[in-house]
UniProtKB/TrEMBL annotation:
Transmembrane segments: none
Chain intervals for the UniProt region annotation (Disordered): 88-107
Listed PROSITE patterns: VOC
Upper classification of the organism: Bacteria, Pseudomonadati, Pseudomonadota, Alphaproteobacteria, Sphingomonadales
Name of the protein: Glyoxalase
Organism, as annotated: Pelagerythrobacter marensis
UniProt cross-references to Gene3D superfamilies, sorted A to Z: 2,3-Dihydroxybiphenyl 1,2-Dioxygenase, domain 1
Domain (VOC) ranges: 1-127
SUPFAM superfamilies membership: Glyoxalase/Bleomycin resistance protein/Dihydroxybiphenyl dioxygenase
């Protein structure tokens, strides 16, 4: 089971507001806040997301193919999270919309993709019945 996902940053305090805004939309806040590490989520709840300066004190870099997926409650929240990300210095990696074909139960994967100010890739998604 995943407890949390950690993303590297070279500017913890400068980039934390991006995640504060995303977390607020998802109904959570900071669950840990240290000089070199901030985690958002709910203790004992769903997996959280953390932003940290690298322990080895080298420059943080983006993992190619690495992405954090944030489960939204519905299509409207996917859109809000995407808009919040862009309004807080993030960049577009794919506007909100359906992806792929419906599964065997008629559910469609609905998602938006964006990057934070460090270049870490995230998405907001939900399954849409129909």
């Amino acid at each position: 089971m995943i407890g949390y996902v950690t993303l590297g940053t070279n500017d913890l305090q400068g980039h934390a507001p991006f995640y504060d805004a995303i977390a607020e939309e998802m109904g959570v806040g900071r669950m840990m806040d240290f000089d070199s590490f901030i985690a958002w989520g709910r203790p004992g709840g769903a997996p959280g997301v953390a932003l940290t300066r690298p322990y080895d004190e080298k420059v943080a870099s983006v993992g190619n193919g690495t992405m954090v997926a944030l489960e939204a409650k519905d299509e409207a929240q996917v859109k809000r999270l995407y808009d919040i990300a862009l309004a807080n210095g993030g960049s577009d990696e794919g506007a909100p919309g359906p992806r792929g074909e419906p599964d065997g139960d008629g559910n469609t994967f609905y998602a938006a993709y964006f990057r934070d100010r460090d270049g870490n890739k995230l998405n907001a998604f939900c399954m849409v019945k129909g």
